[in-house]
Design brief:
The structure holds two protein chains of two kinds.
Chain A (H helix, E strand, L loop, with lengths): L5 E10 L2 E11 L4 E5 L6 H8 L7 E6 L2 E2 L7 E4 L11 H11 L4 H15 L14 H13 L5 E5 L7 H16 L3 E6 L2 H7 L2 E6 L2 E6 L1 H8 L4 H8 L16 H11 L13
Parallel strand pairs in A: 3-8, 3-9, 6-7, 7-8
Antiparallel strand pairs in A: 1-2, 1-4, 4-5, 9-10
Chain B lengths: L2 H18 L2 H34 L3 E7 L3 H9 L2 E6 L15 H5 L5 E12 L2 E12 L4 H28 L4 H5 L16 H10 L2 H20 L1 H6 L2 H5 L5 H36 L10 H28 L3 H11 L1 H11 L16 H11 L5 H26 L10
Parallel strand pairs in B: 1-2, 1-3
Antiparallel strand pairs in B: 3-4
Classes of the chains: A alpha/beta, B alpha/beta.
Chain lengths: ~280, ~425
């Protein structure tokens, strides 16, 4: 197919009065590793969730091969930041659960998983319960789970966060191999060096907007900087907003009860955003 | 197999496997429901019986104050009472005045104190003997209560013999004088209800309540685990990324919770039937006689009730922001099951108005009571069936609304 795999057209997302994303236009082509880079609360996770079709945009549209992405989740593989493994199931049972939901026969899924498990050096752990898994093992299992049905796009939300050096390197190596085999990976991170190392294209997200989109060399050219860190700082020089995607509002009764129990915050302790 | 059915069964299977892998859960799910009725109906009566036998075999020491009566003394000896005689205290105003004896009973130095006073009175120029007595005892002591009961029983027999003696002396027949109006024949032959119908009546007094409370309470933990628990553990986001719809996800989780709950209820009923069979073999309780229609309607009532309760509990648990909050919401919600369940037990089923069968929860409980009595009244069946389906639909709609909330994707871990 010649057209883009994923198209975001005028996408905006609000949570109540908070604008998490404003007017995002993107086209994702196959065979690339795309890094979503930004600080905490920049909107990376929201953008990934919109791309994964688990959230609907407030404005605009997200199409996967010209169809609404929410109806094309079959083609996506997602690894959320929390990995989402069931501790009472073994690694393979976790993977099999998802692959069955994708309608993949167990044998096909097993062969595919074995193929990637060898690369991630996790084959021996497949029959173990995930309860005692380290963060790195959990991340690798979640990666296998996302790959077991052979997705067209892999969406990874901070896949190396909290991982030791070796595990992080193994994950990055796998991402590189997937790209070499023609796969498409969208990779969110707040580590610029990692993005530079792994990604063909970097999208800088800040305060819910796309600040820059291009290859590392294009970003340097755009900002007239010598290194990507300086480029990133120059593109995101305005103050980062506070992270807040929690839409739940405290009711009047709950607020009164909290203040009744704990006392209200003295005015002198309240700090202005501008300070 | 259609995609929808594949999604639902895959989700339900995984939830059940994960749920039963915890041995504590399995214990609560299998052992407790299975043993609760045999424990109540077999083990408890056996224990009570053995305790009663133990108490019967006890020899109890009592103090006898005042007049001594040989006949009564012999009866006390035969009842296993060891008597110590004492003088009647002089500082009491009447025989029930405990005086200084209260401490002896509290200290348990004696099981009971029997006081007897014989007086001679003259009525119509005839001297008659009158006896006055009292028993001092400690109601919180089983031995003291037992001693009192034995004394009362012996006094009652002695009194009967005294009365009969007096009547015979006066040339009167004791039976026709004391019991001139009598039942003729065997009392048990006069009830036209069969043993099975009687058993149905007894079971209808608590089976609906047990089913309702057990269904609601056993669904709480899996409901919380599969909703707020998933959110808190961060597994829900990955699940929502799968190619199934939220409704399919809800249906899968509902099937899992309903299966777990139904297994618990089925095991509980199995235990109950075993206990009934045991009691029937001992001729304590008959086996209820139910028609096929009643059985099918009874099962339908349980299924509809399960749909409604499980959907409602899943919705409330999904609405909660944490496992703790879900527990705080669902725990007290059980009151809304217990109260109607208790309330329904006192509703008179003879001539009950049809509108009772439209009240949420009460309708199903009343229906179960009627069906256990093998009463299939078309008008009532129609009302509870339609109203229950309506309420189950509302519960399912509410659950669907909670499952479609967008903020579910945001993990609260």
């Amino acid at each position: 197919m010649s057209g883009p795999l994923l198209t975001l057209d005028g996408v905006a997302k609000s949570f109540g009065e908070i604008d998490a994303l404003t007017l995002v236009d993107l086209e994702i082509n196959s065979g690339q590793v795309i890094g979503l880079v930004g600080g905490n609360g920049a909107g990376k996770t929201t953008l990934l969730r919109l791309m994964a079709g688990v959230m609907e945009p407030t404005k605009g549209s997200i199409l996967f091969e010209s169809k609404p992405v929410s109806s094309m989740r079959q083609k996506l593989g997602v690894v959320p930041e929390s990995t989402g493994l069931y501790s009472r199931l073994t690694a393979w049972e976790n993977i099999r659960y998802h692959s069955r939901m994708y309608g993949v026969p167990d044998e096909v899924a097993w062969n595919r998983v074995l193929h990637f498990a060898k690369r991630l050096e996790i084959t021996d752990a497949l029959s173990r319960h995930t309860k005692g898994f380290s963060r790195g093992m959990r991340q690798k299992t979640a990666l296998l789970r996302a790959l077991a049905h052979g997705p067209d796009i892999l969406l990874l939300d901070e896949p190396t966060a909290g991982l030791d050096v070796t595990s992080a390197r193994t994950v990055r190596t796998l991402v590189g191999q997937l790209r070499d085999e023609g796969g498409t990976v969208i990779y969110s991170t707040h580590h610029l060096a990692e993005a530079q190392q792994v990604c063909d294209r970097i999208i800088i997200v800040h305060n819910g907007t796309i600040r820059a989109d291009g290859s590392p060399s294009q970003l340097l050219e755009l900002t007239q900087m010598d290194n990507l860190e300086d480029a990133y700082v120059s593109l995101t020089s305005d103050k980062a907003r506070a992270r807040n995607e929690d839409t739940s509002k405290e009711g009047k009764l709950a607020k009164w009860w909290r203040r009744f129990l704990t006392g209200s915050t003295p005015n002198s302790m309240e700090v202005s955003e501008d300070e | 197999m259609s995609n929808t059915w594949r999604f639902i069964t895959t989700i339900a299977k995984k939830e059940i496997i994960e749920f039963v892998r915890d041995w504590r859960t399995l214990l609560a799910l299998v052992v407790i429901p299975l043993l609760i009725f045999p424990a109540l109906f077999i083990a408890l009566p056996l224990l009570l019986q053995s305790e009663a036998q133990e108490l019967d075999a006890l020899e109890l020491e009592i103090v006898w104050q005042g007049t001594i009566n040989g006949t009564l003394h012999d009866a006390f000896n035969d009842s296993g009472l060891i008597v110590f005689f004492e003088e009647m205290p002089t500082d009491i105003t009447n025989l029930s005045d405990t005086g200084g004896d209260a401490d002896r009973l509290r200290e348990k130095s004696t099981s009971a104190i029997f006081r007897l006073n014989q007086t001679e009175i003259v009525i119509l120029n005839e001297t008659r003997t009158e006896w006055k007595f009292s028993i001092l005892y400690l109601s919180t002591s089983e031995a003291s209560n037992e001693a009192r009961n034995r004394i009362i029983s012996d006094i009652s027999n002695w009194e009967s013999s005294v009365v009969n003696g007096t009547l015979v002396k006066a040339n009167l027949d004791p039976e026709s004088t004391l019991d001139p109006v009598r039942w003729d024949g065997d009392l048990s032959n006069t009830d036209v209800a069969t043993k099975g119908e009687q058993a149905g009546l007894i079971l209808s007094m608590f089976i609906p309540m047990v089913i309702a409370i057990w269904t609601a309470s056993s669904a709480i933990q899996p409901s919380i685990d599969m909703t707020a628990g998933e959110r808190e553990r961060g597994t829900l986001e990955a699940l929502l990324c799968l190619p199934c719809s939220r409704m399919q996800l809800l249906a899968g989780k509902w099937l899992a919770v309903a299966s777990i709950t139904s297994a618990g209820v089925a095991l509980q009923i199995g235990g109950l039937l075993f206990a009934i069979a045991f009691l029937a073999s001992a001729s304590v309780l008959g086996i209820p006689t139910l028609s096929i229609t009643s059985i099918l309607l009874l099962l339908s009532a349980i299924v509809i009730f399960t749909i409604m309760v499980v959907a409602f509990e899943l919705a409330l648990a999904m609405k909660a922001h944490s496992v703790k909050e879900a527990g705080s919401l669902l725990g007290p919600a059980i009151i809304f099951i217990i109260f109607p369940a208790l309330f329904t037990q006192v509703i008179n089923l003879d001539g009950v108005e049809s509108w009772w069968f439209a009240i949420p929860l009460v309708n199903i409980l009343l229906a179960m009571r009627e069906l256990l009595l093998d009463r299939v009244i078309s008008e009532h069946v129609l009302v509870w069936l339609i109203s229950s389906l309506f309420y189950a639909g509302i519960a399912a709609w509410y659950a669907a609304k909670q499952f479609k909330r967008e903020d579910l994707v945001a993990s609260i871990s």
